[in-house]
Amino acid sequence: MDRTELATVVIDWYHRHARDLPWRRADASPWGVMVSEFMLQQTPVARVLQPWQQWLVRWPTPAALAAEPVGEAVRAWGRLGYPRRAQRLHAAATVITGRHGGRVPSDPDELRALPGVGDYTAAAIASFAYGAAEVVLDVNVRRVLARLDGGADAPLGAPTAAERRRAAAWLPERHAAVWSVAAMELGAQVCRSARPDCPACPVATSCRWLAAGRPPGPARPRQLYAGTDRAARGHVLAALRALPTGRSADAATLVGGWPDQAQASAALQSLLSDGLVRTDREGYTL
DNA sequence: AAGTCGTGGAT
DNA sequence: TATCCAAGACT
Questions:
Q1: Which tens digits make up the pLDDT trace of A158-188?
Q2: Is A263 within a domain?
Q3: Could you tell me if residue A247 is inside a domain?
Q4: A79: how many CB neighbours lie within 10 A of its CB?
Q5: Per the domain annotation, does A50 fall within a domain?
Q6: Containing domain of residue A257, as a range?
Q7: Do residues A206 and A1 make contact, with C-beta atoms less than 8 angstroms apart?
Q8: Residue A221 CA, nucleotide B2 C1', distance (Å)
Q9: Average pLDDT, stretch A38-60?
Q10: Which enzyme class (predicted)?
Q11: Per the structure, how many domains does chain A have?
C-alpha cells in the first residue's frame, strides 16, 4: 500500500474508533478548539475534559476571557499544570479581541503570532477548527510516522526539517485535516509510547518498526520533580489558588509548609517576575 | 539548543 | 515506591 492508501486505512479506523471528545464535535467553536489545544499541551485528555467544559461555560468567547483579569484565568486553570499556559491563553484572547475582531484567526501565521501558540498549536487550530491542510506534528503523529515509515521509535528533541518533510508527504490530498486527527488518535490509542497495541493496529502489516522487531528508541533524560524549583512554584501556586478570589496572603503563608524556605521564597519571586503572581496592599495574590 | 516550566494517573 | 510521560512553547 502506498501512503495515500495507508492514510485512508487510518482514517477509516478513526471513524470507527475515535473517542467522542467535546472539542471534536460539530458544535465546537474555533475558540473551543483553541482552548482545548492550550489545555492539551503536555496534559492528558482525561484531565482536560472537565476544566474545558467549565472554562467554556464561563468564557464562551475570547472577549469574555479578555474582559477578566489574568489572575482569574490562572485560578480557573486549576491543577492542569504549566499555569503560564493560562496566562498565555488570556494574552492570546486579548490580542484576538483587540486585533482580530474577537474571532480566532484561521491563518496559521496569524495563529503562530499569538502568545502560547507554536508550530503545533497553530497547525492544530487551523486544521481542526477550520479544516485547513496543515502538517500537524505532535508527539503522537511523530511517533506513528517514525515507526510506520521510519522503522524507528520516536526521536527526541524538536522535529527536524526531514521529519517535517516526511509528515508533509503523508498529508493526503483529500481529508488532510481528518488524517491529522486520525494519526493523532492512532498514536494515542494504539501506537502508544508504552506497550503499543500492534495487534489492534490497522496498518501493522505495513509498519517498518514492527517488522524490525520494535527496536527501542533513545531513552529520554529523566525529569525529576520532587524538590525542584518547579515543585516549589507549584506549592506556592496551590496556596494562592486556595485563596478566595480577591484575597491575598503574605509570603510566610505561601512559603509555609515547604521544607526549603529559601527555595520557596525564590519560587515566589520567580512567579512574581513571570507575572503569574502580583502584589497588592494586603500581600500576594493571583 | 538545551533547560525550564506543573501535575497526577498508570505501571 | 520510583519512574514514565502526556495534543508544547519559549528562551
A1: 999 999 999 999 999 999 999 999 999 999 9
A2: yes
A3: yes
A4: 12
A5: no
A6: 229-285
A7: yes
A8: 12
A9: 98
A10: hydrolase
A11: 1
